[in-house]
Write a structure and sequence with these properties.
Blueprint (H helix, E strand, L loop, with lengths): L1 H23 L5 H139 L4 E6 L5 E3 L4 E20 L2 E20 L5 E11 L8 E8 L1 H20 L9 E4 L1 H15 L2 H12 L10 H12 L2 E4 L4 E5 L7 H20 L11 H24 L5 H12 L4 H5 L2 H35 L5 H5 L1 H5 L13 H4 L3 E7 L2 H9 L5 H8 L2 E11 L4 E10 L2 H11 L1 H7 L4 E2 L5 E4 L3 E7 L2 E7 L2 H12 L2
Parallel strand pairs: 2-6, 7-9
Antiparallel strand pairs: 1-3, 3-4, 3-5, 5-6, 8-9, 10-11, 11-12, 12-16, 13-14, 14-15, 15-16
Helix pairs in contact: 1-2, 3-7, 3-8, 4-6, 7-8, 8-11, 15-16, 16-17
Length: 655
Amino acid sequence: MWQQIYLPQANSRLTRDLTSCSIQETGFDHGKRDRLSLWANLMKTSILTGITLTLFMLLLVLAAAFLFLLQGRQTLAESVDTAVARSDLLEQELDRANADIASVQATTTAVNAALTTVEAEKFNLSGQLVAGEQETENLQATIEATSGELSAASAAMSELQEAQARFLQQPPRISIVSPAAGAALPLDEPAAVLVVAGDLEGVTAVNLTLNGEPFADVDVNDELLVAIDDTWTPSAAGTYEFGAMAVNIKGIASPVVTATVEVLDLAVRNAEIRDRVETSVIGLRGLEPLDPVQQTFLTTDELRRRIEDEFAEETTPEEMREDAIVLSAFDFMAADFDLYQALIDLQSESILGFYDPETDEFVLIGDDDILDVDDQFTHAHEYVHALQDQHYDLEQISDEELDDESRFALRALAEGDATLVQILLINNNFFSAAEIIEIQAAFESGDTDLLDELPPILVNQLTFPYTAGLEFVMDLYFSGGYEAVNAAWKNPPRTTEQILHVDSYRSGDAPQVVALAPLTDTLGTGWRLLDQDVLGEFGLREYLSQQLDETAVDTAAAGWGGDQYAVYWQETDEALVMALRLAWDAETDAAEFAALYSAYPTRLFGVSGQAQPDGGECWLGPDVICLFTDGAKSLVVRAPDVGTAVIVAGVIRNP
């Protein structure tokens, strides 16, 4: 500290001396030069000393500054500590503040939610208030309307009471239920007479008259409803009028109600109708009867009994079971289908009439003896069959020397011929417009439940002769009249192909004869032949249509030239073998069949075919179906396994 004080003072002194020297220099001389030199040297020394002192001073300043900084650092550290402590306090206060803010925000949210709820409740209350006001208005309107309705009801009640009073003054009600007005009654047969009368206060008497003469007077014990049931047997043909009247307990009589009926001598009437129908058929068909034709009526119950008796005489359920197995080989039905009962039901419910060429019997089916419009329409059809039988011998339809295909084609000719006559009767105004509507309604109202339940093959076999046969005969008729149809009877079609394609018939396209080698020895013990016959184009189409669409069926069956099938059965294992050999008009037809037929077993079994070493193709399902093609011939084999099918195919292809 002393040095710091001293040195500045010495320097001040030196500065004063130098100043004095500068002032005195104006009186310069040589004596003074030495002094100046001395002073100059002294000044040099003083300058160095000053510099040294200055540096020393700087060091002192730096030391003081360092000391100051050291002290400031300590102070700063203390301030930092204080600031950290203060920061911690501030953070704590901030946390408390944030917590307070969060609490305030939560409170605010809750308050807002409460406000929203209050607003919603306020809105709902407002809506309820409006709805309540609307409901009040509606109730008020309802009250007013109800009051009006009560007034109206009261007025209506008064009117009803007045109407009741008037009604009680009305006469009794009476109706003749039977015989119905306009009914045609058979001569000498009892007819039911039923009259019903009623009155709210009671009927005391019912009077019946016939043609104005008393028929029955019945006293009644004041009954509210009474039925008078009686019978009447007309003894003479003519027109009759029934009259009926009832009296109530007040002595009020009903108006007389009447029902006019006609009593007919059915034998005479039906003879007149038959004569009219037969005369028209003869004129249209151009065939004169060679012998009288007798007609028989059967009720539906009598028809069923007759069919059941004929089935019992001609076949057995076991034989029909074998027929079902044969049909199952072509997937037409299950092997255990009850074909026996199905055919009885089908024929009993679908036949309207028939002509039996074996007995020359003309039968109409109906539950009465009167020939109505439907009976006349059926009579015309069956009478054509009688004429066909007398001129062309219909017994050939059941000729056992013909195969099924030939008999089926001949039947189509017969049914088509008879159906065309029915159409010609309609076109020639034999029936009135009302009668035609009645005939059409009868066909449309037929019960189809049984037909829907039967396998389609049975229904289609029943209808094919009528539909396809009609088209065949119509083609002949429109090209050459009944002369062309008569020529067809002299040279009848022998295949369903000729029925389906009349050009094939005209060109004389006869079926090819196809032979099948016997398989009993090949199949071994237990196997027996159930059936061997011709499937025909109709049967082939029915078979294919179960899995192929109509276009594919048309293409696949086109070019059919002939066939032969055989079905074998092994009872122990309930196994069957079916072989169908097809002959085609050309190899291209066989190729088309093969290309399209493959879809049948593929869709039936849901599998693809497997190529065989000999060129065939087999499809494996519950059993096996194989297809082989040899030029213009095809072979379909169905068997329990591939090995059996291949062996069967080898025997048939290489007999």
